[in-house]
Each structure stands twice: as C-alpha cells, then as structure tokens.
Amino acid sequence: MTSEAPTAHHLRDLVRLRRVRDRIDRDYAQPLDVEALARGVHMSAGHLSRQFKLAFGESPYSYLMTRRIERAMALLRRGDLGVTEVCFAVGCSSLGTFSTRFTELVGVPPSVYRVQAASATAGMPACVAKQVSRPVRNREAPTPEPDLA
After folding, report:
1. How far apart are the C-alpha atoms of 62 and 104, rounded to whole Å?
2. Cα-Cα-Cα-Cα dihedral sign, residues 120, 94, 38, 3
C-alpha cells in the first residue's frame, strides 16, 4: 500500500462531506436527518458524523440547525411572520427545540429577537443585516452575568 491511497481516500471523503454540507445549505427546510444524509453519500451515519465534525468543526445536525436559525433570523427581521410560522418555515418540527436552539445561538428567544431586530436593522440593506446579525457558531452565545446586587 502506498502513501497515496489514504490521501486519495481522504480527498474522496472530503468531496462527499462537501456534498452533504451543500445539501444542508440547499435543503435546510426539508426533513433531514444524519441517516438520510449519510445514505446519500454512501457512508454510515457514525462515520459521516465523525468526519463532518473533523472537517467543519461541528456535527451535521448542529450545522443544519445553525442554517435553520440563520434563515429564521432573516424571516423574523422581516416582521411579517410569527415565531411559530418561522419555526415551521425553516424546517423545524418542534417549537420547543427551535426556541431552545435559537436562544442558545442568538442569546435571546425568537420572540424577543423579532421585536429587537426589526428596529435594530431598520433601513439597513438585507445583505448587511444578514452579516451583522449572524448567529454565533461552535459556541453558545454569551449569557449575561446575573445581577446579584
């Protein structure tokens, strides 16, 4: 066996991982799970999860939820949809899970974000609003220090 074989295998895995990431980016609002994503690239779910995390710094599920939250933030900034409508529009099937993950990434619940973001990004071009309001990835949003006084 030559040293080229592992490199070629690694490159093939990276191509497949990029396909998974592209599919998540494109189909985030569809029902996606790790097993279905893995089948699409002929990998086991466990192998996909491990390799995806090594390549991109987070699990496929976490990446999917981040994409959904980013899209939810844009929809909430528009202000014409309620939190429940946004939750289902971005592909989440549980309002509780959506709200919890949103709060972890953004730092405030979606209902609070909807009110705050409408005024904070008013008059800002959509491309700029999206950039300045991206959720924090690979770590939770900072929590405010409790007021013990």
Report:
1. 12
2. positive
Do residues 16 and 9 lie in contact, with contact meaning Cβ atoms separated by under 8 Å? no
Structure-token pair, residue 57: 């710094």
Residues in the chain: 149
Q: What is the pLDDT of residue 121?
A: 63
Beta-carbon contacts of 72 under 8 Å, excluding residues fewer than 6 positions away, are 86, 87, 89, 90, 98, 102, 110
pTM: 0.75
For residues 15 and 13, what is the distance between their CA atoms, to the nearest angstrom? 5
Record the tokens describing residue 32, joined without a space.
């996606």
Q: What are phi and psi of 78, to 5 degrees?
A: -60, -35
How high is the mean pLDDT in each 10-residue block of the chain (149 residues)? 65 92 96 93 94 94 94 92 96 95 94 84 69 56 55
